[in-house]
Design goal:
The protein is an alpha+beta fold. It contains six helices and 19 strands. About 15% of the residues lie in helices and about 45% in strands. Strands 1, 2, 3, 4, 5, 6, 7, 8, 9 and 10 form a ten-stranded mixed sheet that branches. Strands 13, 14, 15, 16, 17, 18 and 19 form a seven-stranded mixed sheet that branches. A two-stranded antiparallel sheet has the order 11-12.
């Protein structure tokens, strides 16, 4: 499929009266033998990318198409000529640069799969072939990790907006849909002041906040707990039995409001604040590999109990999240978690607390 892109340079007026320009650039990742040709930007003193590792590319010149700019910049910076390439997407880059100035660019992202020529020295920085699995060890812009993953997974042509404040990624929007960000916590569960995009949190195993809501009913034997079976489409632990309702605490949100929202979204239960009893705090880690990607989960959870009458035949399940629900005796559940009697992602020590 071909994409016709109309390229313009707009002049806007900054809030303090200073003019800024929206620029058009190309960003190209050249691949060979499962390695990317990376540019370590260490030669220019006044460079927004100083000390970062990025692909090659640069600004459009007058009258150039994206391909014109891509061919020219690759030749100028590497001495190579692309012979097979993909136009992967458009990346909107917005940064305050850590100053009262602002950078705003549209980047045309290319994946160059075949080329000819001999690599030359680059006056923008140092070129180096880096194994793909070691790319994340480099000093990258945090948002680069997102579009590099989309590029490697060969998702269809995409539009990604990345917003930085003082060098930190604070917002991202993929094809018009905002991506979720979490507050990063310290070992004591306190907010560090940093926020991070959801998938990157689970790549790195950062500590973040969640809520766990257990729905419980009294029986002659003791107690039943309501379990949900996670949808087969979930990005982690698909098809596993889980807590009655649970969810991540988005950046800036609080546990109780998150718990009330998750109950309603996942199960259709409109609870009142006083109906949720805080049971404990729980810290847990659970890792896995899903769809070929490592998943590292390190969460500090606020655990609630909900003991109002629940008729599971009348619940409105969020099909994207929950496949089904069922009651199970608490002692039976503990035993099944211990011996692997059911596929689950439940923390045993949490269930044993109440």
């Amino acid at each position: 499929m071909r994409y016709n892109i109309f390229l313009k340079i707009f002049t806007l007026r900054y809030t303090q009266g200073e003019k800024i320009k929206m620029g058009m650039t190309t960003l190209c990742y050249i691949e060979k033998d499962n390695k990317y040709l990376m540019l370590h930007r260490i030669k220019k003193e006044h460079d927004i990318n100083k000390d970062k590792w990025i692909g090659v590319g640069g600004h459009f010149e007058h009258g150039e198409s994206p391909e014109d700019c891509m061919f020219r910049e690759v030749m100028e910076e590497t001495g190579l000529t692309p012979t097979k390439y993909r136009f992967c997407g458009i990346v909107t880059f917005l940064s305050d640069m850590g100053t009262d100035k602002e950078a705003w660019e549209y980047m045309c992202l290319y994946h160059i799969e075949e080329f000819k020529g001999k690599i030359k020295e680059c006056d923008e920085g140092v070129l180096e072939w880096v194994e793909k699995e070691k790319i994340l060890d480099l000093d990258l812009w945090e948002g680069d990790r997102l579009f590099l993953r989309y590029m490697q997974e060969r998702i269809p042509f995409f539009s990604l907006k990345l917003v930085y404040e003082e060098g930190d990624l604070t917002a991202a929007v993929l094809d018009g849909k905002p991506l979720e960000f979490f507050d990063i916590l310290d070992e004591n569960g306190n907010k560090t002041g940093r926020i991070k995009e959801r998938s990157l949190v689970h790549e790195d195993g950062d500590i973040h906040g969640t809520v766990h809501i257990w729905i419980r009913r009294k029986t002659e034997k003791g107690y039943d707990l309501l379990l949900q079976k996670r949808s087969k489409q979930k990005d982690s632990f698909p098809g596993c039995y889980d807590i009655s309702s649970a969810g991540h605490i988005s950046a800036g949100d609080e546990p109780l409001e998150t718990a009330l929202r998750e109950l309603e979204e996942e199960l259709g239960i409109k609870a009142e604040s006083e109906q949720l009893k805080k049971v404990c705090m729980h810290e847990g880690s659970m890792n896995g590999n899903f769809y070929g990607r490592e998943f590292k989960n390190h969460e500090i959870s606020t655990v609630y109990m909900y003991e109002e009458t629940v008729d599971i035949t009348k619940l409105k399940l969020q099909k994207e999240e929950v496949e089904e629900v069922m009651w199970m005796d608490q002692e039976e559940l503990i035993q099944k978690v211990k011996d692997g009697g059911i596929p689950n992602c439940i923390y045993l020590d949490e269930v044993e607390k109440f």
